Amino acid sequence: MLQLTASHIDSLAPNAAAAKNGRGLVQKNKFVKLNVSAEGDLLFGECSGSGKSNYVCSVDFVTPDNPVSRCSCPSRQFPCKHALGLMYAYADGLKFEQASVPEDISSKRDKAGKREENKAKRDSGELPPAKPKKVNKAALKKKIGQQLEALDELEKLSLSLVRGGLGTANAKTVKDLNDHAKRLGSSYLTGAENELRRLALLLEQEDRESGYTYAAEQLTLLNAFIKKGRSYLQAKQEDPELSPDAESTIEEWLGHAWQLSELKEAGRVSENVQLLQLAFYSYRDEARKEFVDTGFWLELGESRIHRTVQYRPFKAVKFMKEEDSFFSVAQINELYRYPGGLNARVRFEGMLPRQTSSADFESIRSAASTSIADAVKAVKNQLKDPLADRAPVVLLQAARIAQTESGAFALVDESGGTLELGDIYRLPQPTTPLLSLVDPALLEDTDVLAMFEHRMDTGRLVAQPLTLIKGERITRLLY
User: What Pfam families does the annotation carry (predicted)?
Assistant: First the structure.
């Protein structure tokens, strides 16, 4: 029998408004037909709307971890409010009449099943693999030529900034940087385009001391990319058949959008994985001109902290599903890992939720690093690579979180090692002041998920707490 909970349906909704509207349809008794298949894996029905004809909607759970919604309404959101309402009605226990699967859905199921069957046969070798796409060497050579020319121009620009000094930057400098960023995007260097825009934003900050500190770090980042990008592109120019670099982030800097098939071919996929989200937040990224939904997840049974990222362009935000906090365990058939360091970005196509158990909280405890020194060493090793993520996240065991005489907070491990806690530039809101407001019991013998940052002005590492975990209590400080 199909098991649906309101929280699971909420996680499927494209945004909070769609979920609210879906619930409203149930409360207003808008559904004139509610049906379920004999196998219990298909919900379908009709919902009255503003037009003469009812909207025909369905949600197909033939693949439980990746349900497919369909509706005759003109909405571009999936699931639409009618499909969501159908699921809320089922979760609320409304009466669904058993009926045979409609012919059009049966036909679509058959086609999908055939595709999956052929895919399984290719994976097993029973059918020959799909022919790889032929590389258009002439087009690739032209593209690489454009990218190398763009890198040369970027190098000249960054050197002129260094020679002139950041203190001489003005409104014209910022305009020139933004204009050049557009040219980088036209030359297929979208990663560099975003980071150059970020540099322009830093030089516009009213707090010039802070802005220039991070601007200097941004210039270092861009110069490292110029050197590594040029070397990689030249190698690609010599060998057009060269496989994508699946170990570093250089491909993303060069504008490559990883396909799941490429990640699988590179061995960057794990099967039957269970993830527990420990932190989630969304923020507005003016450099990318996108909203960014970011989640940090512990892989149960392992010590890895993964990162999920969804980009929602400002222009298309109302058409895209907005991610949200998730409090159950996500059971995933195939987890794809992008190249990266301590918190590699991951992606999955579908999942089945389950309630957390005592064993899951024990996994959190065993995954947390008991030594601040070891955690700091791992963070520093990542930061040695200038193109790596500058704000790694680590799970730490704390004997206590203590407040110093100056009012600051520090994490103390069981051997007496200490780590300064403070709010960092890269997070959208402060959390450290909240430590004085939480239950004092949470500050003793607790696990802390923290994001690290190297402060160039002081030369020290500082960590901002994202989440406190004690026993079976998870207290998220960032939202």
Answer: SWIM
